[in-house]
Known about the structure:
By secondary structure, the protein is α+β, with helices and mostly antiparallel strands. Helix content is 56%, strand content 15%.
Amino acid sequence: MSSARDAPVFSAGGRCFTWVEVIEAARARGDWAALERQVQALVAREHELAAAGALPDAAEVRAAANEFRYLHHLISADELEDWLLGRDIGLQEWMAEMRRSLLESEAASAAHLVQPQEREVWVHAVCSGELAAYARRLAEEVAVHLAEQPLAQVPEELETLGRQRERFCAAQLTESALAAEIANNTVGWTRLDIRSLIHQDEVVVREAALCVRQDGRELADVAADAGARLEDTSLLLDDAEPALRTRLMAAQSGELLGPLATGEDHRLVLALRRVPPSRDDPALRRRAEQAIIERALAGEISRQVNWHEYL
Length: 311
């Protein structure tokens, strides 16, 4: 495992950072300890279910493994083997992690908690994507630091980088920047309150549409008679399903849309209200803040960091 941990992840400021530094920085932030506790709970839950003969079956584990391979573009057996080899993970260790990925760690009993093995933590960190997230976080911290001063090349420096990043992020969130971000997303961040009649049978939904449009009946009454599900939702246009987004784009309050096919369902959608984006919307403000910070950090990384590892 030492060879995998010593692999270069990125370079910045004349220094090469390996997975060792990434983990050290995660330890300094407390992230690594939290990860160890999560693995501890997952292993404990695994032992509980094994004792009860209730572990996920082979088909479920294979499905999780196939989903992981698809997500990481590991289509062939050779691609998977190379990926695991480069991270010093054995096939059986990977399959064990795929099984644990199906478990709920919160359900673990304290009676089964034991200190997780170092390899179990490493495999989970790699396969869960947490290790890659730690690398991106360290790259952001280093890039922000380099924008102000060179690296001092001392271990204690890692402990101060997080505070510099926090100050940098806070400095980006001016009211003018937030106003500009929201103005640039006026359409996509428009909030719509909608009421949906949902049924798997398209014929049922088409008949419901006739009842509303031609007979003037309320959507809730039609849903009850048709045995359809009625669902009230508040969403931003950007978050709507693609099939729904284009229809909602120009929908006016009180307009009935559909039938629309969304996944395995068919639905009628009643547009109840359109609300233009505003900084007074707490959720929208957080979204704007996140977009501003992510863009600013990405800019610093592009100027200061050279990646050696594909994350």
